[in-house]
Amino acid sequence: MSLGAGHALDGSVLVLNKFFMAVHVISARRAFCLLFKDLAEVVTIDDGQYSSFDFASWREVSEARLRFKEPDDEFVRTVHFEIQVPRIIRLMTYDRLPRQRVKFNRRNIFARDGNRCQYCGRRFTTSELSLDHVVPRIQGGRATWENIVCACLRCNVRKGGRTPVQAGIRLIREPVEPKTSPALRLKLSHRKYRSWKAFLDAAYWSVELE
User: Fold this and answer.
1) Alpha carbon distance 117, 47 (integer Å)
2) Residues 131 and 158 in one domain
């Protein structure tokens, strides 16, 4: 299948295992590959009703939906047809359970702190932020959820190799390990991913993000 290029293929798709449990988030490009190979099916929720479609039937549904396209709907044009980007797919044979621990990485730290400097409280782009050890490494501070925060370059330089108390500044919020995926919560803030909520109860909010 020759898919047209565009940001729609870079969108996110929630992946369920065969028991309808959320296990992963992948790009729409990967989702289409799985659908085309009959390794997954599309899952939709309309007025509380669940429906599933293989690639062929999803193509037919997409033709009908194209006539009543909503603002958040995204379509990909191929050589011969247009097909809607799914929001949820279910793997036909995958039965592994989701991860229960939020991955400790730069992206999740930025997401946890909302791209906000934890000293001055201002919001910055990712490129304007750094990660700061609350208790500096030279004083025994470790790289943990409770000791790493986002900091703008100005506050980071001002703090230097000191603790906030030593530098005369305060944290706007104590850093803690999140119980749910911060990056996933950001996704759920967008209307186009609202259908994910049906599968993301408290037990499964730590699905791994690419």
Assistant:
1) 41
2) yes
pTM over 0.70: no
Q: Do 65 and 19 belong together in one domain?
A: yes
Range of the domain at 149: 106-167
The whole-angstrom separation of Cα 51 and Cα 198 is: 13
Residue 33 · residue 2 · CB < 8 Å: no
Per-residue pLDDT reduced to its tens digit, 111-162: 999 999 999 999 999 999 999 999 999 999 999 999 999 999 999 999 999 9
90 bridge partner residues? 16, 41
Cα three-residue angle 178-184-188, rounded to 5 degrees? 120
User: Is there a single domain that holds both residue 49 and residue 125?
Assistant: no
Q: Distance (Å, rounded) from C-alpha 22 to C-alpha 13?
A: 11
From CA 90, how far away is CA 108, in angstroms rounded? 25
Same domain, 35 and 86: yes
DSSP state of 78: B
Token digits of residue 62: 């997409």
Separation of alpha carbons 157 and 67, rounded Å: 55
**Cα–Cα distance for residue pair 193/60, rounded to 1 Å:** 22
| 70 and 143 together in one domain | no
Evaluated on CA atoms 55, 59, 64, 67, the torsion sign reads: positive
> Is 171:134 a contact under the CB 8 Å cutoff?
yes
Does 42 share its domain with 95? yes
Amino acid at 150: C
